[in-house]
Design a protein that fits this description.
The protein has helices spanning 9-15, 30-34, 38-53, 100-119, 147-151, and strands at residues 76-81, 86-90, 130-137, 140-145. It contains five helices and four strands; from the N terminus they run αααββαββα.
Length: 155
C-alpha cells in the first residue's frame, strides 16, 4: 500500500512542468541522443528518482555472464539402412567422444517409427542393417563408420 503522501506517476506527471502551457521541450538531435552528457545523465536520474518516488521499482535486466545460445544442437548422426532409407538424428554427445551406440539406437527408433506410420502399425520383426553412418556438424563430417563398425558396436 502506498502512503497518502506518495503520489502515483500520473499525478506526478499532471502536476509537473509538462502540463504547463508555457513549457517547451528542447529540440534534440541525433548527436544529443547518442552522446552521454552530464545534462542527459542528470535528466535521466531525475526521471528515475521521480518514478521511484511514485512507488515503482527500477532495475536493470540481469544477463548471465556465460549464457549459451538456444539454437545449439549436438552433432547429427546420419545412418543409411540396407533398404536405402536414411535417417538424420541430432545426438546429445560430446564432440570429443562421439557416442555411436546412442546414434544407432536413435536411428533404429526413427526407422521403426517411420515403418509403423507407413505400414499402419505392422512392423517387420528384424530391422535392416545399417550400411553406412557418420557424424556431421555444420556440413563437416566428424567421423564415418562402415557396416562392420555399425554392426559390431553392440546395438
Amino acid at each position: 500500500m502506498r502512503k497518502a503522501s506518495e503520489k502515483p506517476l500520473l499525478a506526478l506527471i499532471e502536476t509537473s512542468k509538462v502540463d504547463d502551457p508555457l513549457f517547451t521541450v528542447p529540440a534534440t538531435t541525433e548527436h544529443d541522443v547518442t552522446q552521454k552528457t552530464p545534462q542527459r545523465d542528470a535528466a535521466f536520474m531525475a526521471a528515475v528518482a521521480m518514478i521511484r518516488a511514485a512507488g515503482y521499482r527500477v532495475s536493470k535486466r540481469k544477463i548471465p555472464k556465460n549464457r549459451k545460445p538456444k539454437d545449439r544442437v549436438g552433432p547429427t548422426f546420419v545412418a543409411q539402412f540396407s533398404d536405402g532409407e536414411v535417417t538424420r538424428m541430432s545426438v546429445f554427445t560430446s564432440l570429443a567422444k562421439l557416442d555411436v551406440d546412442r546414434g544407432l539406437r536413435l536411428s533404429q527408433a526413427a526407422y521403426e517409427a517411420r515403418a509403423r506410420r507407413r505400414f499402419g502399425g505392422s512392423l517387420r520383426s528384424v530391422l535392416p542393417p545399417i550400411v553406412r553412418a557418420r557424424f556431421e556438424q555444420d556440413g563437416k563430417t566428424l567421423a564415418s563408420y562402415d557396416e562392420q563398425a555399425c554392426s559390431g558396436s553392440g546395438a
